[in-house]
Amino acid sequence: SSTFTGRVGLKGMGVAPAGIDKANTGHQHLLINAEALPDMSTPMPMSPGLKHFGGGQTEVELTLPAGEHRLQLVLGDYLHIPHKPAVISKEITVTVK
Fold first, then answer.
1. Mean pLDDT in the chain?
2. Nearest to 18 by CA among 55, 71, 50, 68
3. pTM (2 decimals)?
4. Do residues 86 and 39 lie in contact, with contact meaning Cβ atoms separated by under 8 Å?
5. Which residues, at least 6 apart from 56, have a Cβ–Cβ distance to it below 8 Å?
């Protein structure tokens, strides 16, 4: 359906809310239908196509219009800046009916 629950996981690192500076941790940023990855040297901007899980969430309720959508995760540090090297999921495609 147009509203569904997405769950994310992470191996080899920990999850921490934005603003918490702790080694080997970060929080997820969900790219929705992104044409390209964001600038990996600056904080990722909030936009309709880039959802921040700044509270350290590992689950989100998404509402998307009918059709195919590409989803991809980028792990950001406490300042929303992608890690070096970047921690990025494979892109997946979901179909909303």
1. 94
2. 55
3. 0.92
4. no
5. 15, 16, 17, 20, 27
